[in-house]
Each structure stands twice: as C-alpha cells, then as structure tokens.
Amino acid sequence: MKVLNNSNNNRKIPLLHNTYLATSAATIFTLLMIFASATTSVSASTAGNTTTTTISSGIELSPQPIYQRQPSTSGVTPINQTHIGSTFSANGTLTLPNTTETINTTSNGSSLTSLTTQSAIGTETIMTEDGETITATFYEILEFPPFAGGANGISIAVLHTNSTGRLAPLNGTIVVGTDYLYPISEGFGTYWEWVPTPPPLPPPTMEESPPSPP
To answer: What are the tens digits of pLDDT across the range 51-81?
Structure first.
C-alpha cells in the first residue's frame, strides 16, 4: 500500500491530478498513435472447396484532432492513502468534424485518481465564447517513464451537449486522446473522434456432407 507522505508518491501526486479528459474533449487523447489495423485470414472447407475470408479489425480515428487543450491543476485533495481528488482548468480549441474552423474554449473539471492503478475517472465542462457547453465524462490511464519527471496518459471520453448550435454534431461523440503531463502540474492534451466501424461478418461455417443413402 502506498503512503501519501512517501517521497515517490509526493512526486506523483501533482501529476496524477492533471488527469482530466480529454474531451471533445476530447481530443482523446496523428493519434498519438494511430492504432494500426490487424488483418486475419480464415480458411474453411465448404462442400469440398476451400474459401478464404479476410477480416479487418482495428481502431479508426478522425484524420485531425477535434479537441486540444492545455490544462493546469487548480486543487488537490487527498482522500485516503490510495485515492486523491483534484480539480483543473484549461484553455483549448475545438475543431468540428469535417471542418477546418477552430473554436476557442475554456474548461474546468474534476477527477478521482487511484494511486495504486495510476488511473482516473472524472468530468470536464467545456465552454465556448458564445456560451455553448459540452460535458465530457472520461477515464484515463497514466504511465510514469523512469527519470522523466512527468507522465503520459491515454484517455477515452464521451461528449454530451444540449447545444442546438455549432456544437450540436458533437453530442454522443466518443473521443480518444493522449495527455502529456509536466512536473509543474500542467500539460497538453490532444483528442481525436473515434469512428465506429461495423463488426466483421463471421467466418464461413463448414457445411456437413449429406448422409449416404442406406
């Protein structure tokens, strides 16, 4: 069990509290990785013939980020030896799908971080200059590279908005992104829209030969 006054935990606590969405944030978080597709070949014998079916699987993201922001931790509240609550604010930009128009945003949010699993859940409210808002609900996993003094995070989030204006197309959008957290409790996050793909068709089944007449 980790103790809050442990020197290693003291180094990690301010970083873990930078955990926030990504949202339209989410703009979880060039994917940071753009997830590569995997292709599998399945062979089956049908009535004496061999059929090969190719099934592609992978994660497809929007070609450009839809949300980028620079967050800063505004408050940290130790809850117990393994969990910490935090609040944050951020300046960012939204780029609506299939457009090049950028929209300036501000946001604030809160998260609950687990020190044992190095993960966090939380919400973020993103606001535009004309008063439209998006609420992002997110989950993030963090990694602390040795001797780096910071952290990397991968987030997924779902966006909800009651807007009937420019942000309306983002309602229900799922985003995937990365966060880079610096030792000074600030960071930079980039998020892409997840583009759902239909599930692949099942591989062909082997047909049994009809029974021989008696």
So the answer is: 444 444 578 899 999 999 999 988 999 999 9
- Residue whose structure tokens are 């994917």: 31
Looking at the chain, the whole-number percentage of residues with pLDDT higher than 70 is 67
> Region 178-198: what's the mean pLDDT?
86
Tell me which residue has tokens 């128009």: 101
Q: Taking the CB of residue 147, how many other CB atoms lie within 10 A of it? A: 5
- CB–CB of 52/43 below 8 Å? yes
User: Residue for token digits 């497809």?
Assistant: 60
Strand runs labelled E in the chain: 38-46, 49-57, 60-61, 67-78, 83-95, 102-114, 119-128, 133-143, 151-160, 174-181, 187-195
The CATH architecture annotation of domain 7-195 reads Beta Barrel (2.40)
Q: Where are the domains of the chain?
A: 7-195
Q: Which residue, among 98, 92, 90, has the nearest Cα to 63 in the 3D structure?
A: 98
pTM: 0.67
